[in-house]
Amino acid sequence: MATARPALDPELRELLADMPLMSQLSPEVLAHLRRLPSTPIEPLLAHRHVDRREVTVPAKDGAPIPLSVFSPANTNHTTSPCIYWIHGGGMVMGDRLSQIDIPLEWLDAFGAVVVSVDYRLAPEATGTTLVDDCYQGLLWVAEHSADLGIDPAQIVVAGASAGGGLAAGVTLLARDLGTPAIAAQMLICPMLDHRNTSTSSRQYSGVPGVWTGEMNEFGWRSVLGGLAESEVAAYISPAVADDLSGLPTTYVDTGSAEVFRDEDADYATRIWAAGGQAELHVWAGGFHGFDALYPQASISATARRTRTDWLARVLPSRSAA
């Protein structure tokens, strides 16, 4: 019997019809995808008054971690909120300019300083290396907040897909280590659970897609390396965390027609169960990363506007444009 799945949003289905899809990743396919050009940043900055700064900070093992810092030029604010952005790509591809159009909208809306981190990728980097890289970059931002014009009480950690999972891991790490202070976390279709056993994981396995159960298994196998199940830390796979108390206010969104739907909804539910504050949106008919791939679609515009509206409440001293 065919597996039943939620239908795609009609507009997204029409747009997706022209996109080549696959069901699995392999080392050969990954190598090809990594050779594709990076996101061109110039068109995104052409109409904005933005100062760009490139810095490199040391990882725990001394390896260089590149950061891109985008600041509003000629700001009237004494200090600005910060969006610390962690890119997606299944933990195996992408770079600090991937999906950068999303946080740049918050630079426009709130005068936020956007800092994007280039963490090392699996399978070359494994275990906690990826989340540790992201955390070291965040520590640098907090320690240099005065120089960057950032209000250290208004740092938002945000990411999409793998970046959303890493954002959750970084936030858990910051909570447990007691620094730095994080005002909120924005988890966009986050990759949270290495077990890949949810109903939505099974629904989107065995069929071509933007991100399938098989691709998810490849990504997690790459980052876990040879770790035994008992060795998988919550900082790597946040869904296995025993305790979700004490987290900053959290935004989680996902699509009804994607692999991560159930683990994302469960994460928000567990934050509520621990007495925390979370806002959850499951966009009917949305596939994985729909608003990043097709921002012009009506559902995408609504999803992106809803995130900005939430940030306007989280950053009450800033008004959205």
Q: Descriptors for this entry?
A:
alpha/beta; 12 helices; Rossmann fold; globular; 36% helix; 321 residues
Output the helix-strand order. HHHEEEHEHHEHEHHEHEHH
Based on secondary structure, the structural category is alpha/beta
* Level-1 CATH class name: Alpha Beta
Care to count the β-strands?
A: 8
Counted up, domains total 1
As for the CATH topology, it is Rossmann fold
CATH homologous group name: Alpha/Beta hydrolase fold, catalytic domain
Shape: globular
Low-confidence stretches: none
Provide the helix percentage.
25-40%
Question: What number is the mean pLDDT?
Answer: 95
Radius of gyration in whole Å, from Cα?
18 Å
Strand content: 15-25%
**Sequence of strands across the biggest β-sheet:** 1-2-4-3-5-6-7-8
Calculate the terminal CA-CA distance, rounded to whole Å: 50 Å
Discrete helix count: 12
Concise account of the structure shown:
The protein has helices at about 10-15, 25-35, 40-45, 100-110, 130-145, 145-150, 160-175, 200-205, 215-225, 260-275, 290-295, 300-315, and strands spanning about 50-60, 65-70, 80-85, 115, 150-160, 185-190, 250-255, 280-285. It is α/β, with parallel strands linked by helices and about 325 residues long.
Structural account:
The chain has 321 residues and is α/β, with parallel strands linked by helices. The protein has one domain (10-314): 3-Layer(aba) Sandwich (Rossmann fold). Helix content is 36%, strand content 18%. The protein has 12 helices and 8 strands. It has helices at residues 10-16, 27-35, 42-45, 101-110, 129-143, 145-148, 162-177, 199-203, 213-224, 261-273, 290-293, 298-314, and strands at 50-58, 64-72, 80-86, 113-117, 150-160, 184-188, 249-255, 278-283. It has an 8-stranded mixed β-sheet with strand order 1-2-4-3-5-6-7-8, sandwiched between helices. Helix 4 packs across helix 12 (298-314) and helix 5 (129-143) crosses helix 7 (162-177). The relative contact order is 0.15.
